[in-house]
Design a protein that fits this description.
Helices cover 29% and strands 28% of the residues. The strands form five sheets. Strands 3, 7, 8, 11, 12, 19 and 20 form a seven-stranded mixed sheet that branches. It has a six-stranded parallel sheet with strand order 15-14-13-16-17-18, sandwiched between helices. The chain folds into two domains: 168 residues, Medium-chain alcohol dehydrogenases, catalytic domain (Quinone Oxidoreductase, Chain A, domain 1); 139 residues, NAD(P)-binding Rossmann-like Domain (Rossmann fold), CATH 3.40.50.720. It starts with 10 loop residues before the first strand and ends with a strand. The radius of gyration is 20 Å and the shape is globular. It is of the alpha/beta class and 356 residues long. 49% of the residues are buried. The longest helix is centred in the middle third of the chain and has 13 residues. It has eleven helices and 20 strands. α4 crosses α5, α4 crosses α10 and α7 packs across α8. This is Enoyl reductase (ER) domain-containing protein.
Length: 356
């Protein structure tokens, strides 16, 4: 594949229909004064990308016309707009994928992740970043420290979800943490909670392989559960026994009625539950009992101002995301299809990464 330079055609992975991805030409917008053109080098596959591929929708976002997929990414600056002072060609950068308006009350208040006019890579109708090249605002491109690889740079996007969740829940050196779900987001939330100082972290999942990965990555305890809602009471007792102390904060990284019911029941009085996963649009959960114990419930949506901290954690080794990258593929039609199939299958795949 060409790199999109002179005479080369910029290619991208287009979602053109249910379970149909095609590597096709992708014409870039002109380079604005505050933009940079980036040669993509590492792009990870996220659960939402797979969701779009399988159903052409994710929550309320519906794919109505062909769309370039991908949003976890890093690359090398090829060209800079004439007003860009912070970056130069050759710089290695991690990209924050959401462009907010900077004019609405949310943006002015600092909560730009809630901007109603957010333009986010691979969220319809905005094109994503699984391409040879993309154009992006310079202020959303963060220079990688010398000892942080491009793949690790691409991992800043999922890691940002964990870091934003830990900030929302005020995780610190005295916070015991329970995490429902040991998938990619559960695991990055665990790594973030540890970096924030959490002294004890327990992970819960239905899958024994995922739990063994969590243990290898530093979980203090693991609890395997069923999918049966009738088992919640017994499982909560086992979780509390495994924690060996009250659960201060629970992160539900799955977002199902059962996981949220478990989270609310397992968390100590006066504790917090942070809903991270979005498995079910609607849930039936025991809110009244949790409210009577003053359990706070907070939600998160994406992240804000997380890339500098992600890169600092990676630079200092406080977080190591490398073990999460389990599969690597090149950027070709056949490998794009195979990579998405690998990610969708789950099994031993945690993070599937493209090397462009």
């Amino acid at each position: 594949m060409g790199k999109g330079g002179e005479g080369d055609v910029n290619m991208a992975a287009w979602l053109v229909g249910v379970n149909t991805l095609k590597v096709q030409p992708f014409k870039l917008p002109p380079l604005g004064p505050h933009d940079v053109k980036i040669n993509m080098k590492a792009v990870g596959i996220c659960g939402s990308d797979v969701h779009y591929l399988k159903t052409m929708r994710c929550a309320d976002f519906i794919v109505k016309e062909p769309m370039v997929i991908g949003h976890e990414c890093a690359g090398i600056i090829e060209e800079v707009g004439n007003e860009v002072k912070s970056l130069t060609p050759g710089d290695r950068v991690a990209l924050e994928p959401g462009i907010s308006c900077w004019r609405c009350s949310y943006c002015k208040d600092g909560s730009y992740n809630l901007c109603p006019d957010m333009k986010f890579f691979a969220t319809p109708p905005v094109h994503g970043s699984l391409a040879n090249q993309v154009v992006h605002p310079a202020d959303l491109c963060f220079k990688l420290p010398d000892n942080v690889s491009l793949e690790e740079g691409a991992m800043c996007e999922p890691l940002s979800v964990g870091i934003h969740a830990c900030r929302r829940a005020n995780v610190g050196a005295e916070t015991t943490v329970l995490i429902m779900g040991a998938g990619p987001i559960g695991l990055v939330t665990m790594l973030a909670a540890r970096a924030f100082g959490a002294p004890r972290i327990v992970l819960v999942d239905v899958d024994s392989h995922r739990l063994s990965v969590a243990k290898q990555l530093g979980a203090d305890g693991i609890v395997q559960v069923s999918t049966n809602i009738q088992d919640v009471t017994n499982e909560v007792a086992e979780i509390q026994k495994t924690m060996g102390a009250g659960v201060d904060v629970t992160f539900d990284c799955a977002g199902f009625s059962k996981t949220m019911s478990t989270a609310l029941s397992a968390t100590r009085s006066g504790g917090k539950v942070c809903l991270v996963g979005m498995g079910h649009g609607e849930m039936v959960v025991p809110l009244t009992g949790a409210a009577a114990r003053e359990v706070d419930i907070v939600g998160i949506f994406r992240y804000k101002n997380t890339w500098p901290l992600c890169l600092e954690f990676l630079r200092t080794g406080k977080i190591d995301v490398k073990p999460l990258i389990t599969h690597r593929f090149n950027f070709s039609q056949s490998e794009v299809v195979e990579a998405f199939e690998t990610s969708a299958r789950g099994g031993d795949a945690i993070k599937v990464m493209f090397n462009l």
